[in-house]
Design a protein that fits this description.
Elements (H helix, E strand, L loop, with lengths): L1 H10 L1 E2 L2 E2 L14 E2 H13 L3 H13 L10 E2 L8 E2 L5 H20 L8 H12 L1
Antiparallel strand pairs: 1-2, 3-4, 4-5
Length: about 130
């Protein structure tokens, strides 16, 4: 899985944000990095134990939100301002933000407990870590 993550980082990112594809879609104009895909990268990095990278990308994506915290479908990764593009506001981007926040928190708490085979085992280990 990590080799796939690395290939996506190598081939489908622009200035750290993930694009959906590089093929011609016959639509006028260019396309920005896709918020949903970028949050999925946060999830993949966190699942792979790359928490610093995941947190850095997550915080960058949070910084792309407008003054009231809303995100669009796409982000202009070519500009230094990370300008919002496409459908606005975008529910998928917000759902992915919530999922990534949860996944980052779980990865930070559980870290080594990933080896637990069942959810009750994970819960028991988490309780021990907190107490």
């Amino acid at each position: 899985m990590q080799s796939t993550v690395n290939r996506i980082l190598e081939q489908l990112t622009k200035n750290g944000l993930v694009e959906r594809y590089h093929s011609d879609d016959s639509l006028p104009g260019g396309e920005g990095a896709f918020g949903l895909c970028s949050f999925w990268m946060v999830d993949a990095l966190a699942a792979g134990g790359r928490l610093d990278e995941a947190r850095e990308l997550f915080e960058r994506l949070l910084g792309c939100a407008n003054d009231v915290g809303l995100l669009s479908e796409e982000i202009d990764a070519e500009s230094s301002s990370d300008r919002l593009l496409g459908n606005f506001p975008q529910g998928f981007s917000h759902m992915a933000l919530i999922g990534s926040a949860v996944n980052l928190a779980q990865a930070a708490i559980h870290g080594a407990e990933r080896e637990a085979q069942t959810e009750p085992e994970r819960a028991q280990r988490a309780r021990k870590a907190v107490s």
